[in-house]
Amino acid sequence: MCEQVGHRHSIFCVVPPHVLREIVRNGGPDARESALKTLSIDNTQRNLRGIRLAAPVDQALAAGVSALGTVQGGKQRTIHGANNTETLPGDVVRSEGAPATGDRAVDEAYDGLGHTYDYYLNILGRNSLDGQGGPLHAVVHFGQNFDNAFWDGRYMVFGDGFLLDHLTDLTVATHELTHGVTEVEAQLLYHKQSGALNEHVSDVFGSVVKQYVNGRQDAGQADWLIGEGIWRDDIQGKALRSMSNPGSAHDDPLIGKDPQPAHMDGYVRTHEDNGGVHINSGIPNRAFYLAATGIGGFAGDKAARIWYATLRDDRLRIRAKFKEFALLTYINAWNLFPEGDEANIVKSAWAEVGIEISQ
Ligand SMILES: [Zn+2]
Ligand SMILES: [Zn+2]
């Protein structure tokens, strides 16, 4: 934020944050701790400045900061149990450092939050969702037969499911938590193409964090599924969505066929689903898959860093369309990897799903 002119909440720093993030990534425990502390304070200042500027878009952010009160430190997970009610947040059932409880939902949510936190910190140098070490709260056993998981701006909430069996799946948890990151960084409006991009970014990190946990899997070896094995046994479906082959995740009489297009030719115009945000996200999802496999290696190292830089790019409008997002991934690929083929691989990945990048 220090080095960018025209950033929404610019402040002027002696040590720029990208340096601090390098320290967090590469430093020993002590160096890391102090760099994190500095980044936290920087971000607090940035957010306080945001509050003073009081742009309408910053209200959620401002509310988050005042709710947190003080700057927090490292990983701080709290899992609540709603006891199958719809009261949030319910009782604390596991807090940071406590041993496993034996309740699968509780322990999986705890681990999922931990893996997500670790990926963002270790690979991207981001300290928690808000970038300032804010605590992570999840609620499990929400509602009765509740077939969903959601992020409400404060809590990551998981139902026990009815048709869905296993909502605390890691890709789902990371997907939801990443909505918290997008809210802070880009505020992509949850409608039509900008909404599909919001969904897309959550799917990208959902899959990439799973690949990270699988030993920094090679992109070509990954399953690229969101919610693999999440459907009840009698349902014909392998996942909620497939990033490599959108439209192939399920085909069952009860739940229907996966409606995701894999190319702009199949773009769905609808008023449902906020203008198809969970549908048309298949198009950028496949572009990311093509970029990551084209670049090779662990997708979380290069492709996801390009996408993360795009999410943080001040030129990304809250109403961004696919084409604008694609152009910014191309520009950020050049910035991050000026010597390599990455930018051209990114460009052809978008072209393959029907999005031509033109400057
Ligand atoms: Zn910034
Ligand atoms: Zn989502």
TrEMBL record:
Residues 87-183 form the Peptidase M4 domain. Keywords: Hydrolase, Metal-binding, Metalloprotease, Protease, Secreted, Zinc. InterPro entries: Metalloprotease_M4 (IPR052759), Peptidase_M4 (IPR023612), Peptidase_M4/M1_CTD_sf (IPR027268), Peptidase_M4_C_domain (IPR001570), Peptidase_M4_domain (IPR013856). The keyword Protease applies. One of its GO terms (cellular component) is extracellular region. Extracellular zinc metalloprotease. Belongs to the peptidase M4 family. This is Neutral metalloproteinase. It comes from uncultured Rubrobacteraceae bacterium. The lineage of its organism: Bacteria, Bacillati, Actinomycetota, Rubrobacteria, Rubrobacterales.
